[in-house]
Amino acid sequence: MALVPTEAVAGKGPLVTNRLLPTRTGGDIARTMRALCVVEHGDAPSTRLRLRECLDHYARLGVETTVLTTRRSSMAGQLKIIKQARLHDVVLLFKTLGFSPLELALLQRANPRIIFDFDDAVMFREQKHRKPLSGKNFRKFLRTVRHCSAVVAGNDFLACFAQACRKRTVVLPTSIDLAKYHLKQHREGLGLTIGWLGLSDGLPYLRHIQTALQRLTKRFPGLRLKVISDKPLHLDGVTVENEPWRLETEQANLSSFDIGIMPLWDSVWTRGKCGYKILQYMGVGTAVVASDVGVNSEIITSGENGFLARTEDDWVNAIASLIENAAQRKSFGLRGRELVEARYSLDAFTRGYVKLLREVTHSPGEQVRTASGNHTLRRWNISSRARELSGGDAIVISVPKSGRTWVRTFLCAYFCKRTGQPFTLRPDRYHEPGIPKLIYSHDFAEQRMKARLWDRIRGKYLVPARELARARVILLVRDPRDAFVSLYMQLVHRTEETPQRLKEKSAGDLLRDRRYGITSIIKTMNQWFAEFAPRQNFTLLHYESLRVAPERNFRALLATLGEVSPDPEAFKHALEFSDFGNMQRLEAAGVFDSKILRSRDVANPEAFKVRRGKVGGFRDYLSPDDQAFAAEALKELDARFGYTASARALEILGLQTGQRLDSHHESKVLQRLHETYLQGVGAAWHRPGPFLEWVNTPEGGADCVEYLRQHMRHEFRRVFGYRNTPRGLGSQARIKLGAAWGWKEPRTTLFAPFWLQIFPDAHVVEVIRHPLAVAMSIRQRELEFRAGGDPATPQLEQLDYCLRLALTYVEAGERLARLTPNYRRIRFEEIQANPPRTLADLAGFCGLRPTGARIAKSAASIRPERAPEWQSLPGETVRELLNNHPMVGKLGYR
């Protein structure tokens, strides 16, 4: 229940709306737009293909372009560009990294509508000639992109790096003008002309497959390699026909090829290539063979419109097949042309570009966000580790110390037992068809905590996006506070590689650390949920639920992996084997062959991999101040994880609920205030009967009102956690000026009649949900506390008692409708069904005036509706409980 004890708050603050800023010459979207295009000195092919050949198309679409050339060493040239930027609606930088930080700042100030366009991995330019990476170009790339409003990338690989900078990114592949590419006449017989077209800096790629070309030359006498370039090529054992490139003869040369090739080696530079050669070959109907690198595999479907090659034998077999089969060459060529017409035409490219230009000019300097308000994130992994993180049937992702070892041990024990194999943490190595391959990763968490600069650039610890789209994703989560404490113990007592400066930190200091602290953990969990929640292949698994009911939840986990009817003997064995006590004994005895389950110091219980596993154990290690800090940080955790309360939604809408609140957005002092009075009359929150009897007497009611009044009068600041800090003093000042304030605390339902005597104009919001769901939640939390070693609370392990307790609170809330006109009851299921509408309605009831953006953010904090846990109960048990408590039906629940 939430209580809002303020009266006149409507109209107290200004209504903030978003206003569209017009461009300098008006806001009409159909008007002519002026674009300043900045290109590097020289006549690079990409400038011709992505800009100069598009100028006529842009003019027809209402875009007037000015092209300026820049030299990296010319300050006068840069200043001219900055001056011209003021006179244009948008600035386009084509692969231009030569601006200094000061020049970029001045350019952005002159015109914030800047777009960066690139179709090569310019940030890894050193790799073009296989030189070691220095990081210099990468820093220039980051510096430039951060000053831009949007980025246009030639392929998805390049786009990843722009989106990592949280910039709006559009992928527009370099395309071809189909009006200039005419379908050739296909020849019968052997196709003995292999063609390659490109600049001389690409000739080393042909030498890369020299051995394959030599084998083909011996196999097919008369075979020739026709090279169209600015420099000649000579290959021993291969007949090479060199011809200088000229624009006038380009089409004729492309048509003369029987087979077009695009060999590459695999590197970060080649992955940035956009496959333009392939499109040129396909544009005239020439069959293609290309290296299976980067974007090539997106253009070519091997065996349908071309061949992809990885090894020397692949090259020989693919080219030989096309040489011998004229029908195949023609079929591949025609299908390639169809693909270019459908996806890679210059008309589609320019229309997409103009659409982006108009959007940017009407939203200067904005970044694209998702519907939930988060930046769109892209992941990539170009390290050798990507293979280890690929090919799984399911992927288990978690923050370190969230119970992954326990889950992994159970699953490995189960599948090894079921297939009759010895226990191992890598059962997939047995290659048994009944054992799924599971990938375990800390993903973003490990990337944040362990990755160095080069690791971050490569995305070393990230699961590749294609794997997440293909396999089932299981997100294992734990209360971030417990996960942090376990991580702290591991870093200090177990991990040898932990820097000494970290080992010397206290738990409180590390809790606030940007890299290892609780805010980093929460940020990672939120990113995962935003990425995975909309997917059909996503499962959320709570560590706390596993601890309370391991048998039920491990069965559900196995069902997720396809084991709908687990083997009884193997399941029992796995439960016993993965029991915490047994795992600790085995770890102490050094039974496990894996270092993952090997203790560094058997005399130190904090050095064990399997430590305590206690739910809520963070309280034993964190001071009250640290706990308050963690609770404040937990407010940022996505409420759909279930670790924060829905009261956060009203707080986002503008309701002041205090400071130093716990993870349920409740004041601990207020909890103690209520509970102390309950205990004083022989009651408790879970046994409210004696309190209700006492306050129903005139003496009891008056005593309760006086008790609350005295504490509110003398301890208001302490009750709601306000400190003598700028933030605390500011919050108190806003309350005095009429800002809406209130609190959420379940015992308020019992005390509300007496709070209303102190705050007669308060607005009361009672949120209810299915009483059976409430009862199961109460019982589950009790079992969690007991599993963590806390003393038992009598009767809360009984579902019938918990249901009666829930209904007692509902009946107490119903009485409030007779005491005040400012009472509103709402079912939580209604909020879940339509969060924006119901939250906007509640905001109006509470006198709040949130903006549309606040309503959207508040709505995003409500976890989506899911199958109620009580439905897993036997049908007979549910019917018996509902028959014994007919009030459930009166509330509209069945």
Short description:
With 894 residues, the protein is an alpha/beta fold.
Summary tags:
six-stranded parallel sheet, alpha/beta, 894 residues
What do the pLDDT scores average to? 82
Biggest β-sheet: count, sense, barrel? 6 strands, parallel
How many helices? The count is 40
Q: What is the distance, rounded to the nearest whole angstrom, between the alpha carbons of the first and last residues?
A: 23 Å
* Secondary structure: number of strands: 20
Helix content: 40-55%
Low-confidence stretches: 6-30, 363-376
How large is the share of residues in beta strands?
Answer: 5-15%
Spatially, the strands of the biggest sheet line up as 3-2-4-5-6-7
Class by helix and strand content?
A: alpha/beta
How big is the Rg?
33 Å
Describe the SSE topology.
Blueprint: E1 2-4, E2 33-40, H1 45-50, H2 55-60, E3 63-70, H3 75-85, E4 90-94, H4 101-110, E5 114-118, H5 136-145, E6 150-153, H6 156-163, E7 168-171, E8 193-197, H7 203-208, H8 210-219, E9 224-229, E10 240-244, H9 250-256, E11 259-262, H10 276-283, E12 287-291, H11 296-299, E13 307-309, H12 312-324, H13 326-343, H14 346-361, E14 394-398, H15 404-419, E15 438-441, H16 443-450, H17 453-458, H18 465-470, E16 472-477, H19 480-493, H20 500-503, H21 507-511, H22 518-532, E17 538-542, H23 543-548, H24 550-560, H25 568-577, H26 580-589, H27 624-634, H28 647-653, H29 668-680, H30 689-695, H31 698-719, H32 726-736, E18 743-744, H33 748-758, E19 763-768, H34 771-787, H35 799-814, E20 823-827, H36 828-833, H37 835-845, H38 852-860, H39 875-884, H40 887-890
Parallel strand pairs: 2-3, 2-4, 4-5, 5-6, 6-7, 8-9, 8-11, 9-10, 11-12, 12-13, 14-15, 14-16, 16-17, 19-20
Antiparallel strand pairs: 1-18, 1-19
Helix pairs in contact: 3-4, 8-12, 10-13, 15-25, 28-38, 29-31, 31-33, 34-35, 37-38
